[in-house]
Amino acid sequence: MEDKLQDEKLRIREWVQLNRERMIEMLSELIRHDTVNKVISGSEKECQEALCMMLEDLGLEAELYEPEQVPGFHEHPAYYPGKDYSGRPNVSAVWTGTGEGKSLLFSGHIDTAAVAPGWQGSPFEPVISGSKLYGLGAYDMKGGLVASILAVKCLMDLGLRLKGDVVIESVVDEEFGGANGTVAGRARGIIADAVIIPEPTNLALYPATRGGALWRVTFRGTTGLSFNGEEIRNPAVDAARFILFLEQYEVLRAEAEGPAPWYSGRKEQLPIIVTRLEAGDLKSPLCDVGPVECHVDIWVECYPGVDEDQLREELLTGYRDFCGVRPGDGLALPEFKRMIRFLPGSQVAADIPLIPLLAGEIESATGQAAEVTGSPFACDAFVFNEYSDSPALILGPAGGNAHAPGEYVDLDSLSVLIEIYAGAMLRWCGSSAAEL
Length: 436
What we know:
- By secondary structure, the chain is α+β, with helices and mostly antiparallel strands.
- Helices cover about 35% and strands about 20% of the residues.
- The protein folds into 2 domains: about 1-210 and about 345-435, Zn peptidases (Aminopeptidase), CATH 3.40.630; about 210-340, Alpha-Beta Plaits.
- The chain has helices at about 1-20, 20-30, 45-55, 140-155, 180-185, 235-255, 310-325, 355-365, 380-385, 410-430, and strands spanning about 35-40, 40, 60-65, 90-95, 105-110, 125-130, 130-135, 160, 165-170, 195, 205-210, 210-220, 270-280, 295-300, 335-340, 345, 370-375, 390-395, 400, 410, 430-435.
- It starts with a helix and ends with a strand.
């Protein structure tokens, strides 16, 4: 049995090496399609259609479906209103097993973040330098999606059959707290015994993810010139004080160890980022008085187990302490307005069998012990871990500059990832005695 397993691993590795150009071509084709998430709407359709054709050409049963046409989509407890899904289909494909095996779902998203300023050349034209492939979405997360597809094709080409089904889905609207594409898949009934999300992890295994909130924080005041002793309160000053608090509080939070089991044993920074600052009449050529409102947009991350109300109260309590006042002492407190859905952190149980299985495949493919820890970001994993019986783990390629100019994926790591995924499918879904 052990000899057979080693033989399969060697055949998989050889296939991956021989199909490196196919991997590059497939990823390059996906990158050439503009799938930028426009927050309310998106432009994923042409890429999803091309991807669906790829999957069919590889011999998989693939389909396109519109989220709005899924019965129960709006009624799903994780559905978030206010988005337009016209012409934004999801893609789902299945490789049907022979039966009596566990199923595995690879859930990826096709949309990308906005084009950040500073790109050298077109972000939609892939460029290869050494082992790096540059392009918008190469790292987050078209590369991981391609790896999952080619891992299935690898086993098919090698004549290896699985007992359990393998499902691959490409969803729309993940960026900017979308998640409704993933919700539509669950409302449609696309389920599996376990889920792998190919978000970029640098080949680490993440059984947990952070959560986060994007708020517009507003301070209000009075304006004018105090010619007659009027009391003037400039909200920009209050906002400046709040920003100073945020800077200090981010440092303070980094001194505390994260929760067990996936964030314990280390201290790390939970980002609090001021993403936009707005005050005054921006249409006026000049302003000689203070604003009546000041808006500070902030992204604040949190660990699993913290909800939106707790996170907001944590900030308000910390701000009062920073200012040295108690509630009711006249401190101008900010108003919080949600800009996107609150993304809850999520985690899976430590005894899920897929964790040691994937860790073993990582070690086998890389020759190094797997890093198993909590992720430094939020993603759609909560839809599975909080609203379904399918535990979701995150495992993806190495690269850099996600959501930034010069985004790239490391092609060597992408090849290794195909090997890891293929080996994991054999062990999780079960290898059938029958061969193609």
